């Protein structure tokens, strides 16, 4: 909706709003290429061994990227809505290109956190159960989708009952709601998730998973 209600014309070329999702995939692919083909070979040359970012660091970085994604999205949405209301039109004069940073952060979130979590499942489960890693990974995605739906319904129910102010969500016109408030709420939940992860998970990941992961990657490199 943000892309639809933004000015998508750039130098006489209209960018389809659906293309914005490609930015996340491109950033994900670019980071994986840089990490696997540039960072790791250079680190191996300097230290004579395969130095990979720890699972803890990658998940932490991914969560931080998610927080930045929501904060940037909130700021951009606020400016987009204000510009549209000032001009009195459905489509804001703000360029669609200003949405690029939030999609880039979204892609980097997957590049760091999602890949690290998948590796964690693969390294943690016994070899005979390793095929379950993918199932557990996508099951967690399904659970998060249900949780996201519940949060949206609760926020819409609470904010729509307040007659004095505009609701945060709902309708087909983003100019009539306060989507930026919802983005800030998700950013706050992501910050709590960051604290939760560091409080309960980091010591285990550092001691038990990263050494196993590093040894497996070294075995794969030797076999190659």
TrEMBL record:
| Matching InterPro entries | MFS_trans_sf, POT_fam
| Keyword Transmembrane helix among UniProt keywords | yes
Gene3D superfamilies recorded: MFS general substrate transporter like domains
Domain of life assignment: Eukaryota
Question: Pfam families per the record?
Answer: PTR2
| Chief subcellular location | membrane
The cellular location(s) given in this protein's UniProt record come to: Membrane
One of the entry's Gene Ontology molecular-function terms is: transmembrane transporter activity
Give the UniProt entry's GO cellular component terms: membrane
Entry membrane topology: Multi-pass membrane protein
The residue ranges crossing the membrane are 19-38, 59-76, 96-119, 131-158, 181-202
Q: Does the keyword rRNA-binding apply?
A: no
Ordered alphabetically, the record's keywords are:
Membrane, Transmembrane, Transmembrane helix
PANTHER family reported in the protein's UniProt record: OLIGOPEPTIDE TRANSPORTER-RELATED
Q: Belongs to which family?
A: Belongs to the major facilitator superfamily. Proton-dependent oligopeptide transporter (POT/PTR) (TC 2.A.17) family.
**Protein known as:** Uncharacterized protein
Which organism is this protein's natural source?
Salix udensis
């Amino acid at each position: 909706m943000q892309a639809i209600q933004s000015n998508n014309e750039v130098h006489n070329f209209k960018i389809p709003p659906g293309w914005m999702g490609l930015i996340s995939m491109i950033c994900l692919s670019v980071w994986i290429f840089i990490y696997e083909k540039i960072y790791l070979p250079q680190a191996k040359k300097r230290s004579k061994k395969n130095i990979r970012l720890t699972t803890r660091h990658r998940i932490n970085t991914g969560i931080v990227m998610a927080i930045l994604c929501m904060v940037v999205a909130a700021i951009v949405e606020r400016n987009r809505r204000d510009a549209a209301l000032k001009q009195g039109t459905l489509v804001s004069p703000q360029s669609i290109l200003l949405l690029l940073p939030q999609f880039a952060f979204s892609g980097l979130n997957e590049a760091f956190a999602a890949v690290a979590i998948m590796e964690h499942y693969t390294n943690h489960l016994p070899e005979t159960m390793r095929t379950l890693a993918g199932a557990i990974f996508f099951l967690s995605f399904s659970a998060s989708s249900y949780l996201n739906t519940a949060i949206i319904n609760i926020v819409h129910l609470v904010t729509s009952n307040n007659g004095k102010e505009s609701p945060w969500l709902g309708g087909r016109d983003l100019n009539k709601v306060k989507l930026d408030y919802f983005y800030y709420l998700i950013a706050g939940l992501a910050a709590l998730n960051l604290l939760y992860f560091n409080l309960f998970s980091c010591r285990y990941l550092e001691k038990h998973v990263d050494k196993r992961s590093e040894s497996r990657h070294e075995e794969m490199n030797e076999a190659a």
